[in-house]
């Protein structure tokens, strides 16, 4: 037998299957609420204005394609740090950052770092979470433990259940948190709940790993980071994984960053050196284009203003669609309180299939919808198709 004959068949990725079905659906007026990419009111995912301009500047100014560094573009990292961490933490030498290939690269590095620091580490992930979180953590050898997070039927956060599950956590365990705009539920903790989580982490010696992939798409750049920053001021150590895929619209360019918050500067530096070594053996150097673009934007007050204005427009559109959906479908009132690109609708798998087959409405089988797939034009039809499936 041949080597590759020994491999198992892999079930086709649910998202890719959905995409294929969508593309081969000949009906007019299909509604794509599947893949997690921002769409404007015309259903397009345009290159942001500031990105376009920065790309022109980069194309003109770049004189070489020689490697940058294993930590990526240090200037990009230091310009992004105050946006993510706030100015005070960005200037604190207990925080050490590096560029990564997307938020995914940051998460994988964070997981590898944890596994090296503590081979017995376990990571707690709230149910449900972004599907890739589980595979990413397991790939690095971490044991994934799930704790209750969200009840789909009642659209509520199961905070008490979560906190009692976490009482059984061991010192050295890791707690994965979404800083804002939770994927897939859109649900977020209150500031008091964040405080209680931070206190629990400090008391039990849990390491928070905060994933911030949608900063600016909930309530605002500062607002979306505020609870995470407050937590960072309470715990002695933490990991922060950021993505520029959504808020800069740079998806395919693969841009993200990882910050390590150590109990002292030396520890943070050592942890970053470990991450750089791991990165060297996975991708050697992160791709530069996205980092050059974001650096160019953040070095220019005009481009920064343009980026922020466009991000504000995107956020306003998401929130307007949330409000409109909640108004059109009273059972989904909670959608207006939630934030970001996603909602996890209280739909059965059968109902999701029926929406696809009968109405040409595409969403993930668990009921996750991309809010950014809605437009003022398609929303009434979506609401009408949805109503009979909701009790
Ligand atoms: N975290 C979460 C919660 C996400 O939803 C995503 C993207 N879907 C990421 C991280 C990483 O995104 P990327 O690797 O494209 O930057």
TrEMBL record:
Keyword Transferase: yes
Cofactor names: pyridoxal 5'-phosphate
Origin superkingdom: Bacteria
Transmembrane portions of the chain: none
Annotated Gene Ontology cellular component terms: cytosol
Keyword line: Aminotransferase, Pyridoxal phosphate, Transferase
Family: Belongs to the class-I pyridoxal-phosphate-dependent aminotransferase family.
NCBIfam families named in the record: PRK09257.1
Name under which the protein is recorded: Aminotransferase
Lineage: Bacteria, Pseudomonadati, Pseudomonadota, Alphaproteobacteria, Caulobacterales
């Amino acid at each position: 037998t041949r080597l590759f004959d020994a491999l198992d068949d892999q079930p086709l990725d649910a998202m890719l299957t959905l995409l294929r079905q969508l593309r081969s659906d000949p009906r007019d007026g299909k509604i794509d609420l599947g893949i997690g990419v921002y769409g404007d009111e015309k259903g397009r995912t345009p290159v942001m204005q500031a990105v376009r301009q920065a790309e022109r500047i980069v194309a003109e100014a770049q004189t070489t394609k020689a490697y940058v560094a294993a930590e990526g573009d240090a200037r990009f990292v230091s310009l992004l740090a105050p946006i993510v961490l706030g100015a005070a933490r960005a200037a604190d030498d207990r925080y050490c950052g590096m560029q990564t290939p997307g938020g995914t690269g940051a998460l994988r590095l964070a997981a590898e770092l944890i596994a090296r620091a503590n081979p017995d580490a376990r990571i707690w992930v709230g149910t449900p979470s972004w599907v890739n979180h589980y595979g990413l953590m397991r790939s690095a050898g971490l044991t994934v433990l799930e704790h209750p997070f969200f009840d789909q039927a009642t659209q509520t956060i199961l905070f008490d259940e979560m906190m009692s599950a976490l009482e059984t956590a061991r010192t050295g365990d890791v707690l994965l948190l979404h800083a804002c705009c939770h994927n897939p539920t859109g649900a977020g903790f209150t500031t008091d709940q964040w405080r209680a989580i931070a206190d629990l982490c400090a008391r039990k010696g849990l390491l928070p790993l905060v994933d911030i992939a949608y900063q600016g798409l909930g309530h605002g750049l500062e607002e979306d980071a505020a609870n995470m920053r407050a937590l960072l001021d309470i715990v002695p150590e933490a990991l922060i994984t950021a993505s520029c895929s959504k808020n800069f619209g740079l998806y395919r360019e693969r841009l993200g960053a990882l910050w390590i918050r150590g109990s002292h500067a030396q520890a943070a530096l050592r942890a970053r050196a470990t991450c750089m070594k791991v990165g060297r053996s996975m991708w050697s150097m992160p791709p530069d284009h996205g980092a050059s673009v974001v650096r160019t934007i953040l070095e220019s007050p005009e481009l920064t203003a343009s980026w922020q204005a466009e991000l504000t427009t995107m956020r306003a559109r998401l929130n307007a669609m949330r409000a409109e959906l909640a108004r059109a479908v009273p059972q989904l009132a909670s959608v207006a309180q939630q934030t970001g690109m996603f909602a996890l609708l209280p739909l059965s798998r059968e109902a999701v299939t029926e929406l696809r087959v009968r109405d040409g409405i595409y969403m993930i089988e668990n009921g996750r919808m991309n809010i950014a797939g809605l437009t003022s034009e398609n929303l009434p039809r979506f609401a009408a198709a949805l109503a009979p499936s909701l009790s």
